Amino acid sequence: MKTLCPNYDREDALDTVLEVPVPEEMFHKMGSTAALRWANMRSLMKAQLQAADKSSHLQAKSNNEFMALLKLVGSPLIPFQVQLVNSPSRPIKDSNIEASTAKYIVQQYVAATGGQAAFNSVNSMYAMGQVKMLGSEMQQGDDSVQMRGNCEIGGFVLWQKNPDLWCLELVVSGYKICAGSDGKIAWNQSSSQPDAVCIGEKSINDEDCFVLKVEAALHVLQSQSSPNTDIIHHTVWGYFSQRTGLLMKLEDTKLVRMKPIKGKESVFWETSMATMIDDYRYVDSINIAHTGKTVTTLFRYGAAHNHKRKIEETWKIEEVDFNICGLSIEMFLPPADLKRDQEAGEQPVS
User: Fold this and answer.
1) Which of 233, 297, 301 has the alpha carbon at shortest distance from 267?
2) Could you give the C-alpha distances from 25 to 78, 130, 131, 151, in angstroms and in order?
3) Residue 350 binned pLDDT confidence (cut-offs 50, 70, 90)
4) 84: which of 178, 301, 306, 310 is 20 to 30 A away, CA to CA?
C-alpha cells in the first residue's frame, strides 16, 4: 500500500502523507510514468479530478451513480461499537428461548474473539486496507445478472472511538467517499444493535452455524428515513460457527421507498448483501477477521419497471491498531453542509 506522496516541486521537501493509502495496483493504473502517477495522485488529494460525462466504473451510467454505488459497497466496512457492556441488557433467564440462545451465542463469539477483558481494554481502533470491486449493468427482468467490465481497485481507512464515533474513507478509481458519525449525527450510513434472536442452524462452507436474526425496530427505521425516502424494513442475519464461535457470514436486506414526486408512482429499492468473513488473526489479544467478500444485489421496482444489478467486492485489512493516541473528536465531525442542514431543522440522509 502507498502511504506517502513525494514532493516533485521541491526536492528538499518532506513527503506528504496520504489520507487514504492506495494499493500498488491502483497506483500503477494512474499513469504511464511515476511522475504522471504522482501528479494524478496529487490531483486526487486536492479533489481536482475532472469528472467525465459518463462513467464506466462498475458499469455505472454516470459519476453520480458510481458514487452512490461506492457508498453502498463501503457498508460492510462500517464498524460496530468496540466497547462491550459487562453483562447482557436482560438476564438470560428472563428472555424467551430464541433470545436466550442468541445471547449465549454472542457471548461465545466475544470469548472466541479475545474475551470481555480484551474488548473492554480498547477505547479506539484504526484499520487500513484495500478493496476490489466488479459490477454488472442494471438490467430488466428476472434473468441472471452477469458481471462485466474491469475490476475497480481502491483503499480504505477506518477510525473508531468509543462510545460511538467512527469515520470511514474509501478511495476507488479516483473517487472518494466519506461516511461517519460524531455520536449525534451519522451520514451516509448508520448502525444499531437491537436484541437478536436465534432462528435455527445452517451449514456455511461445511461449518455448522447458528443463525441469529436482528430486525430494526420501527423507531430506528423512522430515525434513518429522510424527507425523500422511507425505510420500510432492515434485517440482518449473522452466522456463527458452532465449533469456534466466530462469525462466518453476514446477510443484510434493506427496503427503501422513494417518496413520489408530483403524483408519480413510488419507486422501491431493495438491497441484499451477503458477506463471507475469513482469515481471523489476533492483534493485541483480539481476534480480527482480515479478509472478506461481499455480493450485493440491488432491485429496483415500481413505476412499471423492474431492474436489478449485482456488485461483488473483496476486501482485505492490511493494518489494525488499537487505543490510538491523540485521536480527538475533530476527526469525526460531520461535513459542513450536513451541519447546516441540521441547524435548519432538516433530517440528514441515513
Assistant:
1) 301
2) 24, 10, 11, 11
3) very low
4) 178
